[in-house]
């Protein structure tokens, strides 16, 4: 069974120290979550969140490109128009449509992947979320009962305020 | 002298204050603008009821005010997304109070601009013929037609711009949801998608915004290029030009910047955001406007010089009508307000201020509308065959709809600014206040 413990910080540097110490004591990045009302950038290696968004966006764009080329080819060739010897399927004349739909694929994949990667709409309701106050950074740690004491001690040594167990919201 | 920092809680209070309640003056202005917009809808309704003949368009001028407005509003739409994307990609720090106001302009201008092809259709109820499905004879829409290019380009741009506006709005609406009640609470909660402010969410948001900025830049350039190709693909005098696409893109950014400066000044004054929209923001935008004015002059000169030097009779007839003929008043007013006025007001440092930047921008908006008019009407009035020449004068329906679109734009903007913070709160780090 997992427990959740939180500590609040007024600045980024003590928080970075706390995260480094927690990782040195066996906590993984997946066990840690930082909550704030503005984005916080850590140095590389502190709390990295690997992302495949770029790859997904390129894949989405390529998929939409292939689909639209196939679709336009089908629509142009399915009806036997008399073109007087001109090509019935012209890649260049329909290039704008291919380009725009490819970009639409990239846009929709970006939006979709953002929702997926951020965890919005697929959050585990059993994991409690701390309420964040302006200008305060909150570190939430998931730990097993035997590691609760270690986590609390690290937070306190790093200068965290309001260290405490986080209960699931009613 | 050391500059004071605005505390973050005050930033929040200042930027959220305009959302609370609506003053009598606000309601009066909104009612007036809505009435004008409604008048435009009535005019359109009249056109639908009686037929497209109530508009002034007739052979040979089959594109009139509607197409002028279409190109103008698509140009204005470049204010937000394009400018915001460029500033995001270049990490320009001064963009932060500017981007949301700009992105909102894009969405509303595109919505308005995108209506004009439908208005111009006449039989608007048949617009679904543009959808990709086969008709009763199993014929599909012709994807080689620039009209279909427009449909796909504008749909993609509108989708992208909406997402580009919405993504950075999520953290703000999540915070607003904690402070409101009633229907606003429900709206903000739905829009926040359960945002908690975790580092995973912030990372994903920042990555998505970086990617979106790159993608939307490429789309925005393509959209106005496609609008330019609507003309350039026709072998018509002064349209069939290879530089039309970049010329249109430059003109779009130019008019978009002007629209943004005007909107920001109005927001600054009416919402009392003098501490957030600072003189240096306007100074930077004014410099960009001046740069675009010079670029616009370069393209206009290059376009006209090539035609003049070529001395092709059918091209020269349109050229002459523009420069020294019946369209010359519009042409020289355009040159005056698009180049001379910005050059004097913004080029001379002593004269450059928020007020002069706004005056120059209003001039540029007028000038860029005239530019679209001068591209479309003279060429159509004077086709290759002299016997086919004709005149165009807009009817009250076209004039009403044109005026109504400006009112609609302002109304949508007013409503948006009452629903959402017009300056992104989370992006706005505490900053030094400028000394008066």
Summarize the structure in words:
The complex is a heterodimer of chains A (170) and B (436). Chain A is of the alpha+beta class. Chain A has 2 domains: 3-37 and 132-165, 2-Layer Sandwich (Alpha-Beta Plaits), CATH 3.30.70; 53-81 and 89-118, no CATH class. Chain A has helices at 12-24, 53-77, 95-118, 148-157, and strands spanning 3-9, 32-35, 137-143, 161-165. In chain A, helix 1 runs antiparallel to helix 4 and helix 2 runs antiparallel to helix 3 (95-118). The two termini of chain A are 19 Å apart. By secondary structure, chain B is mostly helical. Chain B has a domain at 8-79 and 221-419. Chain B is built from 15 helices and no strands. Chain B has helices spanning 8-16, 24-50, 65-76, 80-89, 99-121, 146-166, 169-177, 182-192, 199-232, 244-270, 279-310, 313-323, 328-347, 354-381, 396-419. The longest helix of chain B has 34 residues, at 199-232. The radius of gyration of chain B is 23 Å and the shape is globular. Mean pLDDT of chain B is 89; it is low at 431-436. Chains A and B meet through strand 2, helix 2 and helix 3 of A and helix 1, helix 6 and helix 9 of B.
Please give the structural blueprint.
The complex is a heterodimer of chains A (170) and B (436).
Chain A: E1 3-9, H1 12-24, E2 32-35, H2 53-77, H3 95-118, E3 137-143, H4 148-157, E4 161-165
Antiparallel strand pairs in A: 1-3, 1-4, 2-3
Chain B: H1 8-16, H2 24-50, H3 65-76, H4 80-89, H5 99-121, H6 146-166, H7 169-177, H8 182-192, H9 199-232, H10 244-270, H11 279-310, H12 313-323, H13 328-347, H14 354-381, H15 396-419
